């Protein structure tokens, strides 16, 4: 397992972790802190435009571990499915424009009023298959991120790494997975599925699961503050040959989002070197 104790070069900051910041502030803050990589969400890229965003990131010498996020395929009708595919193609173009190493894909939940989970799964598979040729042409790998099962209805009906691996194996070249410890730490099949994913692991995200958790969306913990075996999971991920950065992604409306973002970066770096 890689030694992070004196190494900043393997840390990436997800823009969700310092949510008050614009893309310019994220870039400037990471440069000041000596953090070499970022993982922006689409909203802050779109706020300045893809061309300007790419130029800003490249001029600062930063790498982009991933662009978050696209997907959300299931829809109640054909018009909704076409709109989702069009937006996903734009997301691929945005990822290519800023030099992102992959585009994180969130499946999407059940269409409004639907109870057809099998049908939603099929829409996700079909949507990815339709998007994949454009992604291959753009040179942007698609990273399926399984979300915790509590989000199956409204956010993502792909909830296990096994399901993400199944999709990758069915769809082939250009597909990979995003491993986010918040969503997969609970899974008793996780060791086998990480090994199965192997070289398909495109990006690796960390935070922590707090006990108690006060909000199931917006109360993630800083690494080291919760119950996830962070080093155990990283050991498994790196045993596959993963050599990419470790992306800190924290949704924390009542804690970390209320703090000074520069201080949040300092603590992210400290935890990266001591507990991740």
Detail the topology: elements first, then pairings:
Elements: E1 11-14, H1 23-33, E2 37-39, H2 42-48, H3 50-60, E3 63-64, E4 67-71, H4 78-98, E5 103-106, H5 117-138, E6 142-144, H6 161-171, E7 175-180, H7 181-184, H8 190-197, E8 201-206, H9 230-239, E9 246-248, H10 261-274
Parallel strand pairs: 1-2, 1-9, 2-3, 4-5, 5-6, 6-7, 7-8, 8-9
Helix pairs in contact: 1-3, 4-5
Count of helical regions: 10
The residue fraction in helices comes out at: 40-55%
Classify the beta-strand content into a percent band: 5-15%
As residue ranges, the low-confidence spans are: none
How many beta-strand runs?
9
CATH top level? Alpha Beta
Sheet with the most strands, sense and barrel status: 9 strands, parallel
Total discrete domains: 1
> Termini separation (Å)?
11 Å
Query: Under CATH, the topology is which?
Result: TIM Barrel
Mean pLDDT: 98
CATH superfamily: Divalent-metal-dependent TIM barrel enzymes
Q: What class do helices, strands and sheet pairing give?
A: alpha/beta
The name of the CATH architecture is Alpha-Beta Barrel
Gyration radius, to the nearest Å? 18 Å
SSE succession: EHEHHEEHEHEHEHHEHEH
Question: Rough shape?
Answer: globular
Strand order of the largest sheet: 3-2-1-9-8-7-6-5-4
What does this structure look like?
The protein has a nine-stranded parallel sheet. Strand 1, helix 1 (23-33) and strand 2 (37-39) form a beta-alpha-beta unit. The longest helix has 22 residues, at 117-138. The chain is an alpha/beta fold and 276 residues long. It is globular, with a radius of gyration of 18 Å. The chain has helices at residues 23-33, 42-48, 50-60, 78-98, 117-138, 161-171, 181-184, 190-197, 230-239, 261-274; strands at residues 11-14, 37-39, 63-64, 67-71, 103-106, 142-144, 175-180, 201-206, 246-248. The protein is 43% helix and 13% strand. The chain contains ten helices and nine strands. It has one domain (11-274): TIM Barrel.
């Amino acid at each position: 397992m890689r030694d992070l104790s004196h190494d900043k070069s393997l840390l990436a900051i997800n823009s969700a972790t310092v949510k008050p910041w614009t893309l310019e502030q994220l870039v400037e803050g990471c440069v000041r802190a000596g953090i070499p990589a970022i993982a922006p969400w689409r909203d802050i890229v779109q706020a300045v435009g893809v061309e300007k965003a790419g130029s800003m990131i490249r001029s600062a010498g930063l790498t982009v571990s991933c662009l978050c996020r696209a997907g959300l395929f299931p829809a109640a009708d054909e018009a909704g499915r076409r709109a989702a595919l069009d937006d996903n193609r734009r997301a691929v173009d945005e990822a290519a424009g800023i030099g992102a190493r992959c585009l994180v894909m969130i499946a999407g939940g059940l269409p409004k009023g639907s109870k057809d989970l099998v049908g939603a799964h099929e829409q996700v598979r079909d949507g990815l298959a339709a998007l994949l040729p454009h992604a291959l042409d753009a040179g942007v790998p698609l990273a399926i991120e399984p979300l915790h099962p509590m989000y199956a209805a409204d956010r993502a009906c792909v909830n296990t790494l096994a399901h993400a691996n199944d999709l990758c194996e069915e769809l082939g070249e250009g597909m990979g997975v995003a491993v986010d410890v918040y969503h997969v730490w609970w899974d008793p099949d996780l060791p086998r599925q990480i090994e199965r994913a192997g070289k398909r692991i495109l990006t690796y995200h960390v935070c922590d699961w707090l006990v108690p958790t006060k909000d199931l969306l917006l109360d993630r913990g800083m690494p080291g503050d919760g119950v996830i075996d962070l080093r155990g999971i990283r050991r498994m991920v790196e045993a596959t040959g993963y050599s990419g950065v470790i992306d800190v992604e924290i949704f924390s409306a009542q804690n970390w989002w209320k703090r000074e973002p520069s201080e949040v970066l300092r603590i992210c770096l400290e935890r990266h070197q001591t507990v991740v």
